[in-house]
Amino acid sequence: MGHEKDNNATDAYPADESADTDSSDIDPILKFPAYTRYAVVASCFVIQGLSAGLVHAWGVQQEYLAANVYNGDSAKIKTLGYIGTLMYFSMYIWGMLAGWLAEVWSYRKLCFVGIVIMALGQLLASFCYEPWQLCLTEGVTFGLGLGLVFSPSSVAGVGVGGLVTAPLTEFLVNQTGVEWSLRISAIYIMVLGTIACYFIRVPFQDKTRTLRNFDWRAFGDRRFAIHACMVFFVTAAYIVPYAFLPEFWVSKGISPQTASVLIAAANVASSVGRVATGFSADYIGVLNALVLSLLVAALSCLVLWPFATGIGTGIVMGLCYGFAAGGYWSLAPLAAGKLFGIDKVASNTGIFYTISAVGAWLGGPAAGAILAGPGHGTYFTGMSMYVGALWLVALASALTNRILYSRAIFAKT
Question: Domain 1-208 in CATH: superfamily?
Answer without folding.
Answer: MFS general substrate transporter like domains (1.20.1250.20)
